[in-house]
Design a protein that fits this description.
- It is built from eight helices and seven strands, in the order ααααααββααβββββ.
- By secondary structure, the protein is α+β, with helices and mostly antiparallel strands.
- It has three domains: 118 residues, no CATH class; 47 residues, no CATH class; 81 residues, no CATH class.
- The strands form two sheets. Strands 6-5-1-7 form a four-stranded antiparallel β-sheet, with no helix packed on it.
- The longest helix is centred in the middle third of the chain and has 82 residues.
């Protein structure tokens, strides 16, 4: 990039260089005037490059070369050097100052593009992070819903278990406690919640109406009967036996699988029923009366006509 800019600037100033060389040839060995246009032009170019912040930032080496070349031109002019040599250095300083300006501009554009590229990448990264965060939030919400549902199911199962579980009470007799007998008025056996039980049975299906014929059976029976009859005798007797065998086989086959109501087929039929979850009783819900008040208790064994209680009507065993 730097070499390309230098060549472009040199090409653009080619005519100016030729003009400067013609001036140098015309002046010959004359001394450099105080107000030399070429030196002034070189100073303007170098000062413009020096005052440009982009040049100081992105092309400091090119700027130093232009300043050094202009200083060499000033020193040579101060020593009374040949004007042609002074003008050559002034022209070179002018060109180097222009190169510094172009290089700084190009590098500033590249830096701006790099900054924009990094900003775009940062924006893409931020968008990706945001989408990942949103996806994580959705996953967390779904997991929370699943946890809530699992907790709800567990709570429901626990409630059902508590409903069908026999309460654990301490029915032991206390020391020196007076006991009474209370009449049992109602007993209910409690089992677990009912469950659905399904099974498969073979069921007969009557396909034809009464008096119908099993056509497939007749065809098969006729074929088999004809084959068996053909094996009997020879000549006309064999033909007669074949015909009789076919007729007989067809008659037998027509009545295969026939019931009183027609042809009978069998097929699988699923049946379901609700049955208790366990054949064993969970507990007995017992109601009894004592002191004019109705009480209830859950027992693991069936009670008799009476139940032993204390003075407060609490059961005792």
């Amino acid at each position: 990039m730097h070499d390309f800019l230098v060549e472009a600037i040199m090409s653009r100033n080619a005519k100016k260089s030729l003009l400067a060389l013609a001036v140098l040839a015309a002046t010959g060995c004359a001394s450099v005037p105080e107000r030399d246009p070429m030196m002034d032009d070189a100073r303007i170019s170098v000062n413009a490059a020096r005052s440009n912040p982009q040049v100081a930032t992105f092309a400091p080496a090119e700027l130093d070369q232009a300043i050094a070349t202009l200083r060499q031109a000033d020193d040579l002019a101060a020593r009374g050097g040949r004007p042609s040599e002074v003008h050559q250095l002034a022209l070179l300083a002018n060109q180097r100052a222009a190169v510094a300006q172009e290089v700084a501009r190009a590098r500033a554009d590249e830096a701006a593009l790099a900054v924009q590229r990094r900003a775009n990448e940062a924006q893409l990264s931020a968008d990706l992070s945001r989408r990942q965060a949103e996806a994580a939030q959705l996953q967390a919400a779904a997991a929370q819903r699943q946890a809530d549902e699992a907790q709800r199911v567990a709570a429901s199962m626990q409630a059902r278990a508590e409903t069908y579980a026999a309460p654990a009470y301490d029915y032991r007799r206390r020391q020196n406690e007076r006991l009474y007998e209370a009449n049992v008025t109602y007993v209910r056996a409690v089992v677990g919640p009912p469950q659905q039980r399904c099974w498969v049975e073979r069921e007969k299906v009557y396909d034809n109406p009464p008096g119908g014929v099993n056509v497939p059976g007749a065809v098969v029976g006729g074929v088999i009967g004809g084959i068996l009859g053909h094996q009997i005798g020879s000549g006309r007797g064999q033909d007669l036996a074949t015909g009789i065998g076919a007729v007989t086989g067809a008659a037998i086959g027509a009545n295969v699988n026939r019931g009183p109501d027609g042809v009978v087929y069998s097929q699988n039929v699923q049946r379901c029923d609700y049955v208790p979850s366990s054949a064993r009783l969970d507990y007995y819900d017992v109601t009894y009366a004592f002191g004019g008040v109705e009480h209830r208790v859950q027992l693991m064994t069936p009670p008799g006509p009476t139940i032993v209680v204390n003075a407060q009507g609490e059961p005792r065993v």
